Amino acid sequence: MSGQRVRDRGVPLRKNAANHLIFCDCKVIKLRKAVFLGSKITAPMTNEDTMLDNLPRGTICIEDIEMGMSRHLRKTVTDEDIEMFAQISTDRNPVHLDDDYARDTIFEGRIAHGMLTAGLISAVIGEQLPGHGTVYMGQSLKFLAPVRPGDTVYAEVKVVDIDVGKRRVKLDCHCAVDGKKVLIGEAMVLAPSRKFD
Question: Full-prediction pTM beyond 0.85?
Answer without folding.
Answer: no
